[in-house]
Amino acid sequence: MNKILERIIIDNKELTKKGKVADYIPALSKANPEDLGVCIIDMNNNIYTAGDYDKKFTIQSISKTVALMLAIMDNGEEKVFSKVGMEPTGDAFNSIYKLETGDISKPLNPMINAGAIAVSSLIKGGSSEERFERLLSLFRKISSNDNLKVNEEVYLSEKRTGNKNRAMGYLLKDMGVLEGDVEETLDVYFRQCSIEVDCIDIANIGLFLANSGTILKTGENIVSEHVAKIVKTFMVTCGMYNSSGEFAIRVGIPAKSGVGGGIMGAVPRRMGIGVYGPALDERGNSVAGYGVLRDLSRELNLSIF
Ligand code: GLU
């Protein structure tokens, strides 16, 4: 398996030149656009790696999957989906305009920024610190990594420049979707996006979802199979921004990408996958990471369809 991964990394390395590192969050622009790494963890807990699998990056939008789980654990499905919908948008991940048209009463899904901010507002705790600490504990548990922490530079950079997210937070408050203090919710959101991970960490989270909400190593059940299914379904329909339809056809793996360059994959009952390549295509997906997953899917027959 390591040989296959190494070859796939070599085959896709050229693609890194076709993308651009995200720079709308200034601290992200420091990543090396040529980095490319992959990790697979299978149902026997075998770990296979290649390339820059141990480089650290911020989890960004991939965090939306875990925040959604905690919000459902805290509030139940009915309450969460009274605040956020289940439909793909076809718009950019940070699009604000549908919120303002008056046609919708809540963000369309929890994988776009507006929906994710609504979800973060539902995480329980007495303060933003406590709410974030609860979320971080869940990340540590399901990634089997007690050392996960926030990259302070990225967090401060997002907090300083995240004006569009801030605008969406206040709009959501105005719509009656977001309860509580907007700035505190945004603080939880900016911190969750700034958690630093590597390919092994996100492969472990993918494995947890592939294993229906139970940590494979310990056998500890964290969420019901039903909740794990909800998350994986959102990954299929909305996980790759507005390339999700094309990705489902070409790759067929439930996956969630982030503008830090990571993509987390969860192949039900087979494996978790973590890919990192910070050069992004125009829709915000790792351009070479997409190629790695496409090749892996073909080679190992991973499409769920
Ligand atoms: N922190 C990023 C933002 O809010 C996350 C976006 C992403 O990874 O899609 O813009």
What does this structure look like?
The protein is an alpha+beta fold and about 300 residues long. The protein folds into two domains: about 1-60 and about 195-300, 3-Layer(aba) Sandwich (Beta-lactamase), CATH 3.40.710.10; about 60-195, DD-peptidase/beta-lactamase superfamily (Beta-lactamase). Helix content is about 45%, strand content about 10%. It has 13 helices and ten strands. It has helices at about 1-15, 65-75, 75-85, 95-100, 115-120, 130-140, 150-160, 165-175, 180-195, 200-210, 225-240, 245-250, 285-300; strands spanning about 20, 35-40, 45-50, 55-60, 150, 195, 255, 260-265, 270-275, 280. The strands form three sheets. It has a five-stranded antiparallel β-sheet with strand order 3-2-9-8-7. A three-stranded antiparallel β-sheet has the order 4-6-5. A hairpin with a 4-residue loop joins strand 7 (about 255) and strand 8. The longest helix has 15 residues, at about 130-140. It is globular and about 55 Å long. The model has no long low-confidence stretch (mean pLDDT about 95). Bound molecules: glutamic acid. Glutamic acid binds near residues 60, 61, 165, 193 and 259.
